[in-house]
User: Which sequence fits this backbone?
């Protein structure tokens, strides 16, 4: 499945499904001699696990870690790390009554339209169970970041319409909702009791802080630090909006109010959330994001069947009333992964000579070219098949000339040598034809 790899210099690949035998992660790019223990990783996973609070799912997994590669005698070896967790406490029979139905609020319909197949058991690959791999990777990245004196923490700042007025970091880890305001905790709990009674669910907001990040991390223009952090957070299931610093509130502010002015002791305010121009400025990173309500609820809803009928049905199974508490460690992990990748990338560039820097740029461009060429050959092949199916010639001299004329026009505008670009595209067209002939 494409889209399961994250990062550039430090890459992670998560794998596994909600009701499959294992979930886990492969990490590539972690340097050697970092002390890693099973206990440290499981400590982070415990923060992600369901609590025994009434608002949490009854699916209890112990999340025991098995390190398959990349660690020897308690230290990373510099080779790919593979860590798995066995799924044990799943009940696939809970989904039998809806296996041919698309659930409202879930990705069932979109998945089926994209792949023509889906794992209906608990959301399959798009289940929150997938985040186990992220937290494993995040625990290792947090260990790396601690060497730089960089620390990440977060908490729930809103459940429904109950908003925290303060952020008490110590209280977050002492309550099952990971709520940040001791004075508002009971109000949030009362709200959740009412939600449970109605068989419904509720959304909320989470806030993540990063302390100690040095200035200068982030690469404009397309790899801005805030863009990468937002991508990492938005990749978590159920996240629907991300804010950096004051976020959407800046739309109501004047420049004189929003600008973080300088003083001898640093910035007077932190409306930017520690990032300016896509680069860290040394101030505290602040990220807030919105989480939608758990789509699995026991209230009767309208489902769509695979045959196109509307069916009234209820979702059984075990689900959280609010996903926010369990997303906190996942979001911390994604932030840790992004920052580790960005810092390692920055260090690699600093230690390179000019030739190495240029070679790295060429390598990145080549990877992109190869990816685009692969896509082009695939789509070109599909076009040829459609032509043959519709009894049209597979190849068209006019179409080939159109492409070559486009190359000539591009050459004139961009200054790229016309002979080279035309020669390249003639070769691409030749390979497309050969690939089609060989596939017949």
Assistant:
């Amino acid at each position: 499945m494409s889209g399961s790899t994250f990062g550039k210099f430090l890459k992670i690949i998560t794998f596994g499904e909600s009701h499959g035998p294992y979930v886990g992660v492969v990490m590539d790019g972690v340097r050697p001699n970092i002390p890693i223990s099973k206990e440290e990783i499981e400590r982070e996973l415990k923060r992600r696990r369901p609590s025994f609070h009434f608002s949490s799912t009854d699916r209890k997994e112990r999340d025991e870690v098995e390190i398959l590669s990349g660690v020897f005698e308690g230290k990373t070896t510099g080779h790919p790390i593979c860590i798995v967790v066995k799924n044990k406490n799943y009940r696939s029979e809970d989904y039998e009554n809806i296996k041919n139905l698309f659930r409202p609020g879930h990705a069932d319909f979109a998945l089926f339209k994209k792949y023509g197949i889906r794992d209906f058991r608990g959301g399959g690959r798009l289940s929150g169970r997938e985040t186990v791999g992220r937290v494993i990777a995040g625990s290792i990245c947090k260990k790396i970041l601690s060497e730089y004196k960089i620390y990440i923490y977060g908490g729930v700042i809103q459940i429904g319409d109950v908003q925290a007025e303060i952020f008490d970091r110590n209280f977050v880890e002492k309550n099952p909702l990971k709520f940040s305001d001791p004075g508002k905790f009971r109000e949030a709990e009362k709200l959740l009791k009412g939600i449970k009674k109605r068989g419904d669910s509720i959304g909320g907001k989470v806030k993540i802080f990063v302390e100690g990040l040095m200035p200068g991390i982030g690469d404009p223009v397309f790899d801005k630090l805030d863009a990468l952090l937002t991508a990492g957070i938005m990749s978590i299931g159920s996240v629907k909006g991300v804010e950096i610093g004051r976020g959407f509130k800046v739309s109501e502010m004047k420049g004189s109010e929003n600008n973080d002015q300088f003083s001898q002791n640093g910035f007077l305010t932190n409306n930017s959330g520690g990032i300016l121009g896509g680069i860290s400025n040394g101030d505290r990173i602040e990220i807030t994001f919105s989480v939608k309500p758990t789509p699995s609820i026991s209230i009767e809803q309208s489902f769509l069947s695979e045959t196109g009928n509307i069916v009234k049905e209820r979702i059984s199974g075990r689900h959280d009333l609010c996903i926010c508490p369990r997303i906190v460690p996942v979001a911390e992990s994604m932030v840790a992964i992004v920052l580790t990748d960005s810092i390692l990338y920055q260090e690699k560039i600093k230690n390179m000579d000019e030739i190495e820097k240029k070679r790295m740029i060429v390598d990145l461009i080549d990877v992109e070219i190869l990816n685009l060429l692969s896509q082009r050959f695939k789509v070109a092949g599909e076009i040829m098949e459609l032509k043959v199916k519709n009894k049209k010639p597979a190849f068209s001299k006019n179409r080939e000339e159109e492409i070559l004329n486009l190359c000539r026009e591009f050459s004139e505008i961009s200054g790229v040598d016309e002979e080279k670009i035309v020669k390249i595209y003639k070769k691409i067209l030749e390979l497309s034809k050969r690939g089609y002939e060989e596939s017949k």
Q: What stands out?
A: The mean pLDDT is 92. The CA atoms of residues 16 and 226 lie 29 Å apart. The domain at 5-351 is CATH 3.60.150.10 (Chorismate synthase, AroC fold).
